[in-house]
Amino acid sequence: MKKSREELVELDKRYVWHPYTQMQEYIESGEPLVISHAKGSRLFDQDGRSYIDGNSSWWTALLGHQHPRLIAALKQQADELCHTALAGITHEPAALLAEALVKVAPLGLTRVLFSDNGSTALEAAIKMALKFWQQNGYPGRKRFVALEGAFHGETLGVTALSGVEVFRRPFADVLMECIHVPLEVDGYERAFAVAERLLRDKAQEIAAVVVEPLLQGAGGMRVYAAEYLKRLRAVTAELDILLVADEVFTGYGRTGPMWACEHAGVAPDILCSAKGFSGGLLPMAATLASERVFGGFLGDPSRALHYGHTYCGNPLGARVALEVLAVYRDESILELARPKAQRIKETVQALAEVEGVSAVRSLGMVGAVELQSSSSGYLERAGWRVYEEAKKRGAYLRPLGNIVYMAPALNISEVDLEELLAIFTDSIRAVLK
Fold first, then answer.
1. What does the alpha-carbon distance between residue 337 and residue 366 come to, in Å, rounded to a whole number?
2. Is the CB of residue 120 less than 8 Å from the CB of residue 285?
3. How far is 347 from 367, CA to CA, in rounded Å?
4. Burial label, 164 (beta-carbon count in 10 A; 0-12, 13-18, 19+)
5. What is the pLDDT of residue 18?
6. Residues 232-266 pLDDT 10s
7. Crossing angle for the helix pair 189-201 and 226-239, nearest 10 degrees?
8. Mean per-residue pLDDT over the chain, rounded
9. How far is 389 from 408, CA to CA, in rounded Å?
10. Residues 71-86 pLDDT 10s
11. How far from chain centre, in Å, is Cα 319?
């Protein structure tokens, strides 16, 4: 017999430790959504009410929920092979997925290492970069460079790359060194000049530069110029510094093209993918590397990349991820998303003149509104008032402090999109009136 909503909430508050949540406040007064099922762009709670999933469930369900082709692929694979290790073993889904990824990846990325989420994909990139230089003549290259406001994951290694201080500061004393260079969303020349000077001065110390191409997600949906990334690629190539593109959020068409790097016409040395990579069904990720980076690990057994996860390349995730790419191709996902991206852009631009709005921005299927506030940052509460208003109206819009944003499924129906845009607008106006 199914538990009631009240019983589930009681159990939840008694036993579950929620991410990014002040649990005392949650236990004392939290009224969580209790989701029973999902379909397309909608989540359904225990009482049968639906909510448009305004952030595609933490940016993963880019093809919506329960896409029939993904479910069918998962069921078929479950009947044949659920799991086997990938050490000294291979299987069809992993081999076919790696081939398919290389075909759609930026030019020059030819090797694929599988893992299980965005953090581990970036962790793999860090270890690739460090060990590549260590055993190929440049052991002094141990430092990393990232952008102010960056967010690259949760594990201790990638926490060092974070420019969101509320996430980084508690662990600062035990993190590896990372230099954060400025990023200006309005113009780029001055910020790039600082980055270039640093890279030229310290080239022999730097293992890699790590960036979220054009769009910083958890840092506040900040959009920066493609020319910045283009020039960054040029100078890293000149100085022989590895460039790592964190496409965990920006990849798979979130910003328009398949990869955000395409806006700048560049190809990194290492690229990380997760989130929409498996359509929101299973934990699955990949780190793609150039043949040069891969070649730096060949030879003596000690030169191998000693890194891997129990479920890396697991058959279920690999089969679903392979089907995701097929759906993108067969259903023209990127092409059909373009007019929807334009509607998102028009909606947030229309809010720019609303009193209480300090800035708006959009790129592809992401639209964000920054609310005026006495403070800023992830812990600011202004956005949560919009969250509550949107929830009343039937949409799930989890904010980033005083940043209210939407990042729906790329294949959201026009009807659902228009409803989401209306709720987004009405909820902001209701809070600011």
1. 11
2. yes
3. 8
4. buried
5. 97
6. 999 999 999 999 999 999 999 999 999 999 999 99
7. 10
8. 96
9. 18
10. 999 999 999 999 999 9
11. 21
Neighbours of 102 (CB within 10 A): 14
Contacts of 186 (CB under 8 A, 6+ apart): none
How do residues 367-413 score in pLDDT, each as one tens digit?
Answer: 999 999 877 778 888 899 999 999 999 999 999 999 999 999 999 99
- For residue 142, which amino acid is it? K
Q: Does residue 185 register a pLDDT over 90?
A: no
Phi, psi of 106 (to 5 degrees): -55, 150
Count of CB atoms situated within 10 Å of the CB of 224: 24
421 neighbors 347 (Cβ within 8 angstroms) = yes
Cα separation, 422 vs 419, whole angstroms:
5
Whole-number Å distance between alpha carbons of 155 and 243: 20
Question: Under DSSP, is residue 13 helix (H, G, I), strand (E, B) or coil?
Answer: helix
Q: Give the whole-angstrom CA distance, residue 63 versus residue 331.
A: 10
Distance of alpha carbon 28 from its chain centroid, rounded? 31
Nearest-CA neighbor of 84 among 325, 278, 307, 317? 317
Residues 136, 270, 291, CA angle at the centre, nearest 5°?
A: 55
DSSP string, 19-35: TT--HHHHHHH-----E
Q: Which residues contact 358 (CB under 8 A, 6 or more apart)?
A: 370, 371, 372, 373
Positive or negative torsion for Cα 283, 289, 291, 293: negative
Provide the strand spans (E) within 61-142. 109-115
Question: Using N-to-C axis directions, what is the helix angle for 333-350 and 414-432, rounded to 10°?
Answer: 20
Token pair of 203, please? 């080239």
Residues 6+ apart with CB under 8 A from 47: 5
Dist CA 408 CA 402 (whole Å): 19
Cα–Cα distance, 113 to 98 (Å, whole number): 9
Estimate the crossing angle of helix 315-330 against helix 333-350, to 10 degrees: 80
> What does each C-alpha distance from 234 to 10, 144, 238, 366 come to in angstroms?
55, 17, 6, 27
pLDDT tens digits for 20-52? 999 999 999 999 999 999 999 999 999 889 999
Helix (H) or strand (E) holding 45: strand 42-45
Torsion over CA: 235, 237, 240, 246 (sign)? positive
Total Cβ atoms within 10 A of residue 47: 9
**Residue 288: which H helix or E strand, with range?**
strand 285-290
Q: Which two tokens stand for residue 226?
A: 């493609």
Whose CA is closest to 247, among 203, 217, 223, 222? 217
